[in-house]
Amino acid sequence: MRSVNADSAASPDGRKWDQIDWPTVHRRVRRLQTRIAKATRDRNWRRVKALQRFLVNSFSAKALAAKRVSENDGKRTPGVDGEIWSTPEAKWQAIQRLGSRGLRPQPLRRVYIPKRGSNTKMRPLGIPAMIDRAQQALHLQGLEPVAETQADPHSYGFRRGRGTQDAIARVFTLLAVDGDSKARNSGERRGLTTGAPVGDLGDCWFVDVVYGVIEARSAAIGGRSSDPCFLVLDFAPMLRRTIPA
User: Could you state, in order of their start, the residue ranges of all structural domains in the chain?
Assistant: First the structure.
């Protein structure tokens, strides 16, 4: 493992990295991503492509990409070239190497790590070089606005700014919130303990399935945990009913 250009001769580059105005960098990237998202909504693909090219070649996007891969949890894990960016000089020089032309990714460094839940089985893990990780982070900034604009508004897995709590809130809204008086009366007849209104989805077997799966998971691990999924149990008395024969 080697750190790139960490000697004193590169110290001016280190000062340049330390002088980057990060709030301005974030603001410029965010503004360009907003323009890409707007062009995507308008289905102006020529403009989308032009803005993406402008973004990935901008200094701000390259600086953010270098910052992301050099300051995350994998910053001390090198690829096949043994290179890490542990100094301000190396990070600054990485910005100069990033771009959208002449991309030649290096092979992955293959290592084997223990398989989750097993002390004997191993699984392979491919580790890209630092420069390839930075290239991925750079181009992600141009692709993400398009993907987020066109994605399902109610998908929550691997989405920026979304998590388990959002999915739980969505399920609760679908199953429990409806102002229709007929649904309320139906819910009371079926034995809902709170008498809260429920919608059409509340009168189906899915409620019991959700409750049963989470209850079984709780029993399997020996009680409730801090997992956000267990928040559903707080709403279970309102949602659960007896499945008709």
Answer: 2-150, 164-239
